[in-house]
Specification:
- The complex is a heterodimer of chains A (184) and B (148).
- Chain A has 184 residues and is α+β, with helices and mostly antiparallel strands.
- Chain A folds into 2 domains: 59 residues; 116 residues, Nuclear Transport Factor 2, Chain: A, CATH 3.10.450.50.
- In chain B, helix 1 packs antiparallel against helix 2.
- Chain B has a 6-stranded mixed beta sheet.
- The chains are: A alpha+beta (184), B alpha+beta (148).
């Protein structure tokens, strides 16, 4: 229901119109203050507000690429500053994070790792990125550079990354993020 | 007779519960459907069935190969057609639905021969599936090389 509802915006609107007319006739036929009428009003309200969700998603589509690009820059910046609060707000709780060495981390794992004192990221910047939008989902693919010190050893990385963002509960959240090992 | 506040609240609660349950069922259905498609993808890749792969991938597919190459749908299909036989074993996978999007993450093993030399690679993959025009389509896929 939600899957189709979120996707077929046009069809949902047409169906609502078709069904609302008999509902209005039904409500009109009932006496004022009847329990049935009150219940019908409550059900109609819930139904109508559920139907509003796709509308919100349509609005979210405007300037989507720019919005997601800004979020990506903010994400890299927060990583550099070890700003867990900012990252916590950007990451979905079910985030799937894959490190350049192929290790998979949860949101909590990643945030804990970022705070570790044995890793010091001195530089992390996206070199290029492309955003592809699919309704309420956006896929970002690009290349980033990272320099830092890990366990006392300096390292440098230039890797490809791919992040997936989804519009959930009124905001864009990163639901998946992965990077390759260093590329030339 | 006027309905009590309690009866209105009860109706509201029941409607919310039904909506919530339907939503949860949608999530499970989506994960299950995408899980089946992932399985078909593995089979199609192994059999080099380009036609099947074409219907699984969105036209704007973004694909990052285990070696880091960024590829389009056309490039992936051409690569599959030209490649030598490859044995793909998905060792684990998990699908998570987020509305009309499903993320599948897992570990796979690739075994084959490249330029006459046998290879065995392990990779962690993340696939992004989106429900578009009545179909689930893979819009993005990335595999990161990993140690076994």
């Amino acid at each position: 229901m939600a899957l189709r509802g979120q996707h077929d915006h046009g069809h949902a609107t047409m169906n609502e119109r078709k069904v609302r007319l008999p509902l209005q006739r039904f409500l009109g036929s009932m006496k004022m203050g009847s329990p049935l009428k009150m219940i019908a009003i409550v059900v109609a309200f819930v139904w109508a507000t559920t139907g509003m969700i796709p509308g919100q998603q349509i609005n979210a589509g405007s300037g989507l690429a720019a919005k997601v690009r800004d979020l990506e820059y903010a994400r890299f910046d927060a990583q550099h500053r070890k700003d867990n609060l900012a990252l916590d707000a950007m990451f979905d709780n079910a985030l799937v994070w894959v490190e350049p060495d192929g290790v998979q981390l949860t949101k909590a794992d990643y945030l804990a790792k970022l705070r570790k004192p044995d890793i010091n990221v001195t530089e992390i910047n996206p070199e290029s990125m492309t955003v592809r939008a699919h309704g309420t989902t956006a896929v970002v693919v690009g290349i980033y550079r990272e320099r830092g010190v890990k366990d006392g050893q300096a390292y440098a990385l230039r890797a490809r990354f791919m992040d997936t963002w989804a519009f959930k509960n009124g905001k864009w959240l990163c639901i998946a993020a992965a990077a390759t090992s260093s590329i030339s | 007779m006027k309905p009590s506040k309690w009866s209105i609240a009860l109706v509201y609660l029941a409607t919310g519960l039904v909506t919530g349950l339907a939503h949860a069922q949608d999530m499970v259905d989506a994960e299950s459907k995408v899980g089946t498609l992932e399985h078909l993808w593995g089979e199609a890749a192994q059999l080099r069935d380009v036609k099947a792969l074409e219907s699984i991938f969105d036209d704007s597919l973004v694909y990052v190969h285990i070696d880091g190459r960024l590829m389009t749908k056309a490039q992936v299909l051409a690569d599959t057609k030209a490649a030598d036989a490859v044995d793909i074993v998905v060792q684990s996978s998990l699908a998570q639905a987020h509305g009309n999007t499903v993320i599948v993450s897992g570990v796979m093993q690739l075994k084959g021969v490249e330029r006459g030399k046998p290879y065995l690679r392990h990779g962690r993959f993340i696939d992004t599936w989106v429900y578009e025009e009545g179909h689930w389509l893979c819009v993005a896929s990335m595999t990161t090389a990993m140690q076994p």
